[in-house]
């Protein structure tokens, strides 16, 4: 219940009792879910009366309760605004690599989990581009390596990393990163990076390789895995 109220508070200050009961006990009857809600509220108040506050037909977290997800969103929103350098926000987002409430599979949690994940990745990408524009290439590359380690097939992150190498004057490193990404993308999805990305490093997009036999492809796809340098990802060989 506390987790649901904390996430629901992002959009509204409190939650209607009937809605809360339905979300937390979706398979129960209306009467049963409301009874379960009353029991849960009673138990929480036995631990700390200030955790949850109910008035009329609505429930909300106590005014003094702090939520790390709200702080995380604040970190990301400041970085997305790109109005100022945010080293503390950057450090907070780089440090947060685990997903929201790992191991939970409640339906109401899935969308919030993905929203926070995407917000973190977009914030780091935006921050990396701002750092590169200020000539702080090492920090930009560090931020993007963290993103591609988590999402190696994310072309926008790979693009930001390649652009940081180019801004630093390391064309060879940029081409090397693109070659690694192109190889991984083809191995995993049988597609190529966009022609625009090849153009940024002064390369023409290569034609697709000749198809190999299905048995060989399957063997390669399920064979030995090795770490790709500067990718933080693994590729099937």
Structure characterization notes:
The protein is mainly alpha-helical and 237 residues long. The chain folds into 2 domains: 60 residues, no CATH class; 169 residues, Alpha Horseshoe (Serine Threonine Protein Phosphatase 5, Tetratricopeptide repeat). Strands 1-3-2 form a 3-stranded antiparallel β-sheet. A two-stranded antiparallel ribbon has the order 4-5. A hairpin with a 6-residue loop joins strand 4 and strand 5. Helix 4 packs across helix 5. The chain is elongated, with a radius of gyration of 23 Å. The relative contact order is 0.08. The C terminus is likely disordered.
Indicate the topology.
Blueprint: H1 2-8, E1 15-16, H2 17-24, H3 30-47, E2 52-55, E3 58-61, H4 68-81, H5 87-95, H6 107-133, H7 137-150, H8 155-167, H9 171-189, H10 195-200, H11 214-221, E4 225-227, E5 234-236
Antiparallel strand pairs: 1-3, 2-3, 4-5
Helix pairs in contact: 2-3, 4-5, 4-6, 6-7, 6-8, 7-8, 8-9
Organism: Nocardia brasiliensis (strain ATCC 700358 / HUJEG-1)
Protein name: SARP family transcripitonal regulator
Domain Bacterial transcriptional activator: 67-202
Tell me briefly what this model is.
The protein is mainly α and 237 residues long.
Helix and strand element order: HEHHEEHHHHHHHHEE
What is the terminal-to-terminal distance? 45 Å
Q: What helical percentage do the residues reach? A: 55-70%
CATH topology of the largest domain: Serine Threonine Protein Phosphatase 5, Tetratricopeptide repeat
Annotation, overall tally of beta strands: 5
CATH class of the largest domain: Mainly Alpha
Q: Low-confidence spans: pLDDT under 50, at least 5 residues?
A: 214-237
Q: How many helix segments?
A: 11
How much of the sequence is in beta strands? 5-15%
Largest sheet: 3 strands, antiparallel
Name the shape in a single word: elongated
Over all CA atoms, what is the radius of gyration? Answer: 23 Å
| Domain unit count | 2
How are the strands ordered across the major sheet?
A: 1-3-2
Helix and strand content put the structural class at mainly alpha
CATH architecture of the largest domain: Alpha Horseshoe
